[in-house]
Amino acid sequence: MSALASEPRTPDTLLLRNVRPYGEGDPVDVLVRHGVIAEIGAVTADGVETVEGNGAVLLPGFVDLHTHLREPGREDTETVETGSRAAALGGYTAVFAMANTDPVADNAVVVEHVWRRGREVGLVDVHPVGAVTVGLKGEKLAELGTMAKSAANVRVFSDDGHCVHDPLVMRRALEYSKALDVVVAQHAEEPRLTVGAQAHEGEQAARLGLQGWPAAAEESIVARDCLLALHAEARLHVCHVSTTGTADVLKWAKARGTKVSAEVTPHHLLLTDDRLSTYDPVNKVNPPLRTNADVEALRRALAEGVIDCVATDHAPHAVQDKDCEWSAARPGMLGLQTALSVVVEAMVRTGLLDWRGVARVMSERPAEIAGLPDHGRPIEVGEPANLVLVDPDATWTVRGAELASVAGNTPFEGMELPGVVTTTLLRGRVTAGRIPA
Ligand code: DOR
Ligand code: ZN
């Protein structure tokens, strides 16, 4: 029996009929054979399993550089399996699982465990992120080389949830990352400026009596790290950019030749701190929701390429950690299944991005940043069939309880959003959507 035949529900050949690559031109058919795009055009193929696209937009499968899968340690909120399912339903074919698990992914054993679970589940390529410092404590560098050379082949390192705030530690991490040809992703937050912080430092926080999280806490670390990366000639990735000032710093650093890339979350592209007046902790997130002016600046920066990509910061939390008073609640919100729709709402409907642009920020750039050779590829004959089909005209109403994640903490609850992922293919296999009979 061949390897393909032994995998259930894996057709050797699959036909996507009437689809529009990048939303451009007249519908075409795309024939996928053995996980690779074999033909594009008017395909005649009898007796082949077929997905009817009805003119849907075909894009390269999305790549999320920033996902919290919570395994090991908090399987009551998410697992590699449930998170992979949410990712596939959201149109993703690869995700990067953050290291702030319990135990922390700061060694080869933990990263290999996460990697192996991802392979067993098989719905999305799960790439573990390794911690930069032992126990995320910011003091001693973790064994980056051992994790990079492990079976998990770690390519991205981050203490996300925490900032690598000691400049000497950060400098060393950048130097090692250069030697290993990997990338350090920084959660930029100067901790001395965010002690007790609960919300964006501004009018809203003042009115509600919440301790402020100043923009400068993010911007000062990003400026510092850009300079460290520039001098070390190392690559730096900035997680969840949330302020106008950070976008300005990135623009300056890129113009100076710094090898810096950056991501923005869907929630920072759509929501503002106006949300806080209800005191509903579903809106609590780190970095916090900012102002309307910040949202507009982030959208512009993403459209112009100052910010490279969208990453979800998918952060599932248990009911008891969200359904409580504001100050006791944990920061974070679900993102995998709503990301595409929020990007359509914030960027496509506003005319800031077309579908090629969506492919760039949700698939091509993140794949490049992480060095994934098989994702974010052009839709061309001979390329791997990591693909997503999106119905651009359909809308859906978000219900946290119906999402695939164990947790249900979505800030988009009850919102009607545009753009529905109808089918996701990982190496030609349907991982979400209707599996053809
Ligand atoms: O809101 C957040 N939640 N921001 C982070 O940096 C960490 C994340 C989490 O792990 O819940
Ligand atoms: Zn973070």
From TrEMBL:
Q: Which InterPro entries match?
A: DHOase (IPR004722), DHOase/Allantoinase_Hydrolase (IPR050138), DHOase_cat (IPR024403), Dihydroorotase_CS (IPR002195), Metal-dep_hydrolase_composite (IPR011059), Metal_Hydrolase (IPR032466)
What keywords does the record list, in alphabetical order? Hydrolase, Metal-binding, Pyrimidine biosynthesis, Zinc
How is the co-factor bound, per the entry?
A: Binds 2 Zn(2+) ions per subunit.
Can you state which reaction this protein catalyses?
A: (S)-dihydroorotate + H2O = N-carbamoyl-L-aspartate + H(+)
Q: What cofactors does this protein use?
A: Zn(2+)
Q: Which GO terms describe its cellular component?
A: cytoplasm
One GO molecular-function annotation for this sequence?
Answer: allantoinase activity
Where do the Dihydroorotase catalytic domain residues begin and end?
A: 55-243
Q: What is its EC number?
A: 3.5.2.3
| Annotated binding of substrate, by residue | 68-70, 100, 286, 317, 331-332
Identify the catalytic residues.
313
Please name one Pfam family that this protein belongs to.
DHOase
The record ties this protein, via Gene3D superfamilies, to: Metal-dependent hydrolases, Urease, subunit C, domain 1
In terms of HAMAP family, this protein maps to: PyrC_classI_B
As for what it does, the entry says: Catalyzes the reversible cyclization of carbamoyl aspartate to dihydroorotate.
Q: Which NCBIfam families match?
A: PRK09357.1-1, pyrC_multi
PANTHER family in the record: ALLANTOINASE
Q: What is this protein called?
A: Dihydroorotase
